[in-house]
Amino acid sequence: MMKQIGTLTVAVSLLASLTALDAVKSVQAMPAEAQIANVDKANSYKANAPKRLTAQQIIDGLQLQAHVEGGYFRRTYQADHRDKITTEHGSRYLLTSIFYLLTADAPIGHFHLNRSDILHFYQGGDPIRYTLIKPDGGLEQVVLGSDLAAGQQLQLTVKGGIWKSSELLAGAHGYGLISEAVSPGFDYSDMTLATQGALLTLFPQHKHWIERLAK
């Protein structure tokens, strides 16, 4: 009986060895074509991958111009197919939108206040940190970027009446690109660009951020 068990054990071990050997032979038998196909596929992906743009290429490609608050922008849409809406400060488009870019050479959108609500959409590049001071003095910081695991967001809404600044964070690109949708549509008369002195008078508790991010 023991002899039979021993024979069976040897047979099972031999079968396992042969199965493993067949698996190795099977892999080795797919030689060139599978390996070459994989290499070709990798090379194809690499060849077709978009090249990283520079900040200047984005400025030129999107036809951006310098913004008074810092950074670069271009209006991309205004709802001129609809009647303008009436606000207490005059008639406005229902909605406008822009591209907005911060770069290593222009990394700050300085503190300012808009009457309209603004939605911000991350488009690409390095993350951008928004520092917001609310009318009651509360301070909030939100980072727009692609690293969701790190708490970054793809979208941010800033309601009218909030002081807002933006700052490019360090990264591999040297720029951060977003889009904004503004409603009621943007008008320069609805925007107040802060000075350090005026903002420090209102919110002395936020001296560090005001001195860093206000003109």
General description of the model:
- The chain starts with a helix and ends with a helix.
- Residues 1-12 and 14-18 have low confidence and may be disordered.
- It folds into 2 domains: 2-48; 55-213, Jelly Rolls.
- The protein has a 6-stranded antiparallel sheet with strand order 1-2-5-12-7-10, with no helix packed on it. A 5-stranded antiparallel sheet has the order 9-8-11-6-13, with helices on one face.
- It is built from 5 helices and 13 strands.
- It is globular and about 75 Å long.
- It has helices at 2-28, 31-48, 55-61, 196-202, 207-213; strands at residues 65-66, 72-78, 85-87, 90-92, 96-103, 108-114, 117-125, 128-133, 139-144, 155-158, 163-168, 175-183, 191-193.
- The chain is an alpha+beta fold.
